[in-house]
Amino acid sequence: MNKEKSEEFYEQKYKNESEPWEYSKKAVEVLRHEFIVKLALTLKKKYLRILDAGCSKGQLTSLFRGMSPEIYGIDVSETALAYAKKSFDEAKDKSGSSCQYFFKKENITSLSFPENSFDLVLLCDGIFEWFMNNENRLQALKETHRVLMKGGFVILSDYGNQKYFDEYLALIKASGLEVSATYRCNDRLCYQFNSWLKAVEKGIIARKLIENKLIARLLMKVSSLFGAKGSKHIFVVATKI
Fold this sequence. Notes:
Rossmann fold, 7-stranded mixed β-sheet, alpha/beta
């Protein structure tokens, strides 16, 4: 997948679908985003400047309002960015927040930001989805390292299985970032459950089941019994020394 094809693919996804991947609808996705926010708060309560790389329509980005005076969201889809900016504009009008936010088209492999720009970078869902080869994945991680302040944090998450997770950690370390913690999401059964309902997911009952946080939490508890095999997502906290 070359850069141009990748960008066009995502642009068409956002033009043709109201919310690709349903980050704000599926309970498993909502809980994953909530965990990322909680994880960020355990590292620092306030940040100088936050970057959400691959921000989509701003579903995760919006949860960081109030944690930094400056929030940046980047994506390769102009349609997604326009939606994210509109959402932030409407929220600012209602709250009167002084937070500055910037949404711009950027590719994570060649960022326009200077070195040491951010003390928190969110790189979630993620470089195995965006790139087909490890050369581009490593370049994305090296760019993340470059724009991260010394002592700053990167929170990464990616989708796959244990084989990919080991490869993923190796790439992060090869970029110069230092891994300080890893967490499993225990979400495999949630995705399996959602796939069982896929044929009827537009029905009211099926949608309510997919959107139910209590059901998702129960499935995650069961998934945790399977160890590494119970997770489709891994979370990684890394720092720049």
